[in-house]
Amino acid sequence: MNIPADKKKISIVCFSGDFDKIVAAFTIATGAAATNREVTLFFTFWGLNVLKKNKGRVATGKSILAKTFNLLMGGLNNLPLSRFNFFGASSKLMTMMMKKNNVATLPELIEAAHALGIRIVACEMAMRILEVEQSDMIEEVQDVVGVATFLNDSENAHIIFI
Questions:
Q1: Are 59 and 136 in contact (CB under 8 A)?
Q2: Domain enclosing residue 105, as ranges
Q3: CA 112, chain centre distance (Å)
Q4: I need a surface site. Which of 9, 14, 59, 136 has the fewest CB within 10 A?
Q5: Is 1 inside a domain boundary?
């Protein structure tokens, strides 16, 4: 496949750990990649929760504060909806509705992002604050970068914040 030198670029900053916002980020990213755009997903703060290898609640980190934040975030299987969380059941209900309507689920979107060559990176600063290591992340995380590197890599890109 010939890729033009002036290929359009989109960078999505994922700073929310809300299920619906993460689904939106991956839906936009996979749609953009499928239409021949270069896509980067940059995960920071609560968005890092999506990238954790352990999908459940784990007290990661050394300090009591980091352990508490990481335990409360809960991993990919515990993402709340931004509204109407129904005591934590909302993402499971939404996933059920997605399957019923033949819409890609979040794990399927993550798999599609990887297959489409979307660059998935984690924020170095947020990882340092939350005491999360790259070894705690899923294998799809290609790099841990600072903001300056992300901005340099996103030059001439549309940057979207979700």
A1: no
A2: 9-161
A3: 13
A4: 59
A5: no
Give the pLDDT confidence score for residue 3 in this predicted structure.
46
Q: Let me know: does 29 contact 160? Beta carbons within 8 Å.
A: no
The whole-number pLDDT of residue 70 equals: 66
Note the residue count of the chain: 162
Paired sense of beta strands 141-145 and 38-43, if any: unpaired
Q: Is 159 helix (H, G, I), strand (E, B) or coil?
A: strand
DSSP character at residue 135? G
The token pair that represents 80 in the structure block: 């709340």
Residue 114 forms part of a structural domain: yes
Number of domains comprising the chain: 1
Is residue 108 very low, low, confident or very high in pLDDT (cuts 50, 70, 90)?
very high
Describe the chain by its helix, strand, coil percentages, rounded to 5: 50, 15, 35
SS3 160: strand
Task: Please return the burial class of 94, using the count of CB atoms within 10 Å of its CB with bins 0-12, 13-18 and 19+.
Answer: buried
Rounded distance, CA 28 to CA 37, Å? 11
pTM for the predicted model, two decimal places? 0.87
Residue 45 zone, left/alpha/beta (φ > 0; ψ -120 to 50; rest) = left
pLDDT digits (tens, 9 = 90+) for 22-59: 999 999 999 999 999 999 999 999 999 899 887 767 77
